[in-house]
Amino acid sequence: MYPRAYGSSTMSGMALAWQQMTAILVKRFHHSRRDWKGLIAQILLPVLFMVFAMGLGSIKSDLQHYPELELSPALYNLGPSYSFFSNQNPSTSQLNGHHVVIPRDR
Which top-rank group of organisms is this from (predicted)? Predict the structure, then answer.
């Protein structure tokens, strides 16, 4: 083991955690001070992209006048589609025909 220096003390608990966190922040500050291009890439560019995205999101478009679109597998002309299900309750057997709705072409 290494001999303990005169006047040194060991830290533990929250004091140690606080000292380690402060040391990491000081180290990060000195690193980013030397590497200003990295600081711009990590701080300034994401902020600019967020401002740009929020600006695009706030542009009002005229979407409220478009009609609703029908989404159906029949639009893709893929041929017959099959769905498999099981009816575990015999008293609801009359509902089996209503589970599958085949869309009609317009």
Answer: Eukaryota
